[in-house]
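Annex B. Sample input.
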Amino acid sequence: MILLCGIPSETPLALVGERLAGLRDIDEVVVLNQRHVSTNHIEYHVANSGIAGSLTVDGRRFDLDRIQAVYLRLIDHRRFPELVNEPEGSALRSRVEIFHQAFIDWTEVVDALVVNRFSRQASNSSKPYQAQIITTMGFCVPETLITNDPELVKEFLRVHERVVYKSTSGIRSIVSELDDTAQAKLDLIRWCPVQFQRYIEGTDVRVHVVGQEVFATSISSAATDYRYATRQNGRPAELSVYDLESDVAQRCVQLAATLELPFAGVDLRLAPDGKVYCFEVNPSPAYSYYENHTGQPISTAVAALLAGLTTSPLPTASSTAATTIITG
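Annex B, continued. Sample output.
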């Protein structure tokens, strides 16, 4: 059985569901709708001998040991419309919180393929930490300054002439150039450190790694952050299939494997001097944007990975925890 978790209408989850429906010899595909807060239920027992328990989805009960693969696209449950009018500490809010914590804990210890475990996604919560791992794969990382001191930023800009800034955490931020308008607001960083990097000329390439498969997309845009190209320069980015050099593709696969991510989005920039820069690795890529523009079968590859039709270079978790009972 394959378990898809999140909001069924969200395009990345929906596409994988459609691809799985077209595959043969799959026992069953179950979609766990996060917003069905009153009916989702999980209970299990974890011991050295394994995990025993059940998951209830839309009134149907499934033995956990039937689940062979999980695709996680969970959103922040605290923002559910169903909870808008619920006061803090209400019975429903508590139920939702307990369920999600118990469910996520289960995905951490289950002996099944999980795409991707939250503990492995955590590497993206610290861009500086992830950058250290990126460099071990032979990729370049732009000169970087993380500070809340405006004077250090001014000196960094003087040395590198063109500088961009973004969040140091995994929370999405818009990459922007440190222009005159931004420089006038530099005193605001005293409240929170910001990551500044030397601007790198070159071609943006998003690489989706699915197990051992690689799908590369080149992006043409004059915007600093092509995801917001229309907002930044009035024209959307242009995407096309890119033929990535085999050694770079293999390094992307190795990087995803090192981060223990069966599915990852690797953001590269190919500089004119031949250097390959890697900005970050997205552990929960919204791949549908790239698939819709290029026709690359990324969702098909994810479905095949979940179905066990392709191999992942990653080991599964082993259930070696002490005896515990968790319900939610």
